[in-house]
Specification:
2 domains, Dihydrolipoamide Transferase, 153 residues, single chain, mainly alpha, two-stranded antiparallel ribbon
Length: 153
């Protein structure tokens, strides 16, 4: 991993950051290209600039990527190796709750599929002859006619 990868620079060498973060860095007198980014795709965030201003970074970027938000007391903590694989659940409300209920109910209905093969070579030959007079005719028209005749019987 190169220094450029750690700092989150684009191919042109500029640090990846939003215009608001760039303005904040300029306001604080920080060279944004020297700040290691921990945001999406290594982009520099406002928090990165604040932590850079405090002094040397005590955490590596790999450590920061494993931080997890603790919902109980709103603190960030470094998880233990067993905590990395714990599942985080969120309450489902509103439209998502209704969709989940409907989709779960739909799984109770048995589904059925049926396929059959039919040789329609002679039908396609007939269609080719009729297409000279009626160019808009498709095989679907023949299938609909056959189905309607079958229902009459």
């Amino acid at each position: 991993m190169t220094k450029e990868d750690v700092l989150g620079h684009s191919e042109s060498g500029k640090a990846l950051a939003t215009p608001a973060v760039r303005a904040f860095a300029k306001e604080k007198g920080v060279d944004i290209n020297q700040v290691p980014g921990t945001g999406k795709e290594g982009s520099v965030t406002r928090e990165d600039i604040l932590s850079y201003m405090k002094g040397p970074v005590s955490e590596t970027i790999e450590q920061k990527s494993y931080r997890v938000h603790d919902q109980k007391n709103e603190n960030l903590y470094q998880p233990k190796s067993t905590d990395i694989y714990r599942s985080i659940t969120y309450p489902i409300t509103g439209m998502k709750k209704a969709m989940t209920k409907t989709m779960t109910e739909s799984l109770k209905v048995p589904f059925f599929g049926f396929t059959d093969e039919v040789d329609i070579t002679t039908l396609l030959i007939l269609r080719g002859e009729l297409k000279k007079v009626h160019p808009e005719i498709t095989p679907l028209a023949f299938f609909v006619k056959a189905a309607s005749l079958a229902m009459l019987d």
